[in-house]
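Input sequence (459 aa), recorded before submission:
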Amino acid sequence: MISKTTMLRKRRWRVFFDAVVLCGVLYSGLLNAALPVAVDGEPLPSLAPMLDEVRPSVVNISTVGRTRIPDNPLYSDPFFRRFFGEPRSRPSQSLGSGVIVDAEEGFVITNHHVIANADAILVTLSDSRSFEAELVGTDPDSEVAVIKIPAEDLTAIDVGDSEALRVGDFVVAIGSPFGLSQTVTSGIVSALGRSGLFEGYEDFIQTDASINPGNSGGALVNLRGELVGVNTAIVAPGGGSVGIGFAIPVNMIRNLMTQIIEYGEVRRGHLGVRVQDLTPELAQAFNIDAQKGAVISQVLPESAAEEAGLQEGDVVIGVDGLSVDSASDLRNTVGLLRAGERVKLDILRDGKRLSIKSNIKAPESIQRSGEGVSSRLEGAALSDLAPDAERPEGAVVVVEVEPGSPAWQAGLRKDDIIVSVNRLRVTNVEEMREAVRRNQKALLLNIQRAGGALFLVIR
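Predicted structure, token format:
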């Protein structure tokens, strides 16, 4: 007679054996199975056909130039320069990407920082042909640049509509990360309308498609192979991609590219206001129901805004039918307009909605020779610097300095911002000339340069 213990053991072994047999059958099936090449007669989804059409329009860009070694304060002393020479520069190279947008004319879109300070720009196509490119123009504020190559049989990319993008849409990045040309990565649109990340005009598309150094200027396309953005920047705490990349929307690029090709630069119009984001506290204070908008905190004298009747406290919620959700929205929208254009502004004032039409003016810039201010500044071109958040009253900017000139030898450099002369605050060239006239013996200039500040004595 079989004991109960023996029967339980047999059952356990039987269950174990059946489980082993079942696992073996399943494992065998997996080993013998293969992914089908088609489903219901249709090939499996693949990005390859689209990429075959798009990749010939994406190019590799390499540049050669010279980068100026940062100034040593001692170089402001003419006696030091007499013995040690002028500030030196060193050779520099950069790698990036570009997108062919006009096959007939050979126009290529890229980023400003890819070709900045370049003495020579070399473009290599997907078929390995290489051409030296001509710089058509650039816009540092938006990071957009246009170059031109003398090539035939080019393939231009199809341009899409970045306004139609939605968070979650699939996108593909194509470029030359770390010099590895024609590299493709994919992801989704993580966010839209990103701004306040860097400086300049920003309305970035954020994506988790892997973007690395060298991708700058490359294409961000949708699944139809249409250009929706140009890859520009990444958040990279460790130097590589962490899934947070940014691209300039193609709708913004289209407008800027037209001006760069026509003028060699972007000729932005100015409304003449200072703005800030609308907050719940401000909305309550202004007695309005809106949650988003740009609050006008200052209307500059003799500006287009003043002529149109805009007032401090007005909340701009739309421009020509486009919604304005923040101060950066207004800045970007107006920054894409040309001087002389007329726009309709939708505003909220005292709880009421109004529409005001305004002309867009060109920024006034009085540029004068430094010699007209002082003979010791001969060789420098000076211009009024418009007021901003950092310098609400304005200042004087050095537009250009001729190497070897008295202004150069005195230590002035291009883009220096002069905020005071002989301890007198100056907000424009006229005030600077008046400050110089009061003391002809020496000039004590307070200068802001590359994020720092210094005093420069010119005798």
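Checked by second reader. Residues 273-359 form a domain with the Pdz3 Domain fold (CATH 2.30.42.10).
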